[in-house]
Amino acid sequence: MGRVTLGNGPAQGLAAAEPVTTSWRDWRVLALLVISGILNYVDRTNLSIGATDIQKQLHLSNYQLGLLLSAFFWTYAASQLFYVAGWLADRLNVCLVLAVGFALWTFATTASGLATGFTMFFGLRLILGAGESIAYPSYSRILVTCYPEHRRGFANAAIDAGTKTGPAIGALLGGFLITRLGWRVFFVALGAVSFLWLIPWLAWMPKTEKLKTIPKSKAHLRLRDLLAQPAVWWTSLGLFGSNYFWYFLITWLPPYLERERGFPKATMGVVSSVSYIAIAISSVSAGWLSDFFIARGGTPTRVRKTFAGLGLVFSTVLLPVVIVEDVRLAVALLIVACVSFGLYASNVYAITQTLAGPAAAGQWTSLQNGFANLAGVAAPWFTGWVVQWSGRFYLAFLAATVAVLISAVAFVFGVGRIEPVTFGKIPSQAGK
After folding, report:
1. What is the reported pTM?
2. What is the structure's pLDDT at 237?
3. CATH homologous superfamily of domain 23-414?
4. How far apart are CA 309 and CA 294, in angstroms?
């Protein structure tokens, strides 16, 4: 198959230096990135699916369970916040870096099925976080190099849909398998199957020189150049708020449905899965629509901020989920909140990639994710603490709702124009 032109129109003028064509090989690579995103999130959320069984078998308190659920994020956030993941993604062959990180986190998943106590399980979750920390900086660098502006919405949405489908698959499989085979078999089998992804990736990963090293003309970018950009701080704050919401859903939604709503594990698995799938479908649809509008002349600023702002604001319908007594209404509101969140999720990394450009996509994403994924420590820990203290989930749902409102303010009003920044130059006033 020959190369396919992605289109001519207003969108191409946004970044003349970007690639304007893509081939079937690029879509094959995107498919593998999506699959890695699926496995990434199955691996990081499998603990929440088996939480009640693991807690009983290992004799863990709610506080200890909260620590286990947050342990992944300690190394995941630190590796990005302290510039490790971004430096690796931008300075080395990013495709091989992704492969090594994938192998590390898959090993941790497999070994977790053999954990005999809190300390061993905690250590393996730290290893899991370190391995997965390389994923998003690598995704950003690959996408900003291989896809033009008016294709990044869909490309990012596809990967995001994978990360939302992962918990859905994990919830379904976990709800079905754990009750029959136990959580240990689930962890070991999941890790063993995941290793197979490395075979096609090593065979088909992009071979372009642009993904192996940063051009020397752009290699002088310093950490202080990034930190001097207000947009770095606003996107980090915005992602922190939305991550708090998302990590609350993937760590404590299953236990909430079992404990407070009284769902059996199989029903919990179905409801959790449908919720995550709703985000995935919404994200892909919104990603395609955002690209459609940009390709026809809409500015990235207007289009991406509209999707992000509306999606985050309407995600606040999560709060009534914990208030209403009718189970069917509660589930319906949960689905609406998830669909709304998908509108935002499709555009968040496209915003960062446009602002950073190829020279800094990995490093910006790393810093942004490093700060924002502290929410992965905060959300599970705070929820575990507040449930232990109050015996209810209301305050936990309230915290997640406040978090997405903060995120909306950061992306709509804090971040300026969605266009490549000039490093070393601090904008005088961020336009909207």
Report:
1. 0.74
2. 96
3. MFS general substrate transporter like domains (1.20.1250.20)
4. 17
